[in-house]
Amino acid sequence: KAGVTQTPRYLIKTRGQQVTLSCSPISGHRSVSWYQQTPGQGLQFLFEYFSETQRNKGNFPGRFSGRQFSNSRSEMNVSTLELGDSALYLCASSFQGSEQYFGPGTRLTVT
Amino acid sequence: GENVEQHPSTLSVQEGDSAVIKCTYSDSASNYFPWYKQELGKRPQLIIDIRSNVGEKKDQRIAVTLNKTAKHFSLHITETQPEDSAVYFCAAGSSGTYKYIFGTGTRLKVLA
Question: Is there a contact between B99 and A48 if contact means CB atoms under 8 Å apart?
């Protein structure tokens, strides 16, 4: 099976802009979770989707949002970008929510 | 709130020695504990996991132990090899909430 894919792999944006990241899970996986990875904070949970429904979310401001489509592909959006949003954004897919398999990530740089 | 503490933050061992990484979680509802290995510039990869109804699980040179009473779980790597060098993350979560809290990572260096 093909692994989890994320697009784009790299992105440079300026403060105040908005960005949309995409994640395609492993075929048959219906759960997609998103994480922010930074050197200082490690991996922090953003939100999890299953069958187009958000089942849980982390402690991030409302500028971070997501959605999931009927084919299980997921997108996350960050509006009004801040310098502190620079990070590696990882998505992970799983069959029902436990054993998670990560994508390669999208490296976002905000200038 | 929910928290996972991971120690040590860095660990250097000689090739062939054992390495132990420890994590403590705060949410008593946690029932699933995965471990991930992340090599430089690569994605985290699931290497082993344990559920709360099991005290120990082993897969070749890797083992994980869980003490639910103390809310501790540990990763044990025996006969370490240079290719074991990476950052290791523990995580704790509940299959009911689908939210996983990660530790801050341990950078393991295996010296040849």
Answer: yes
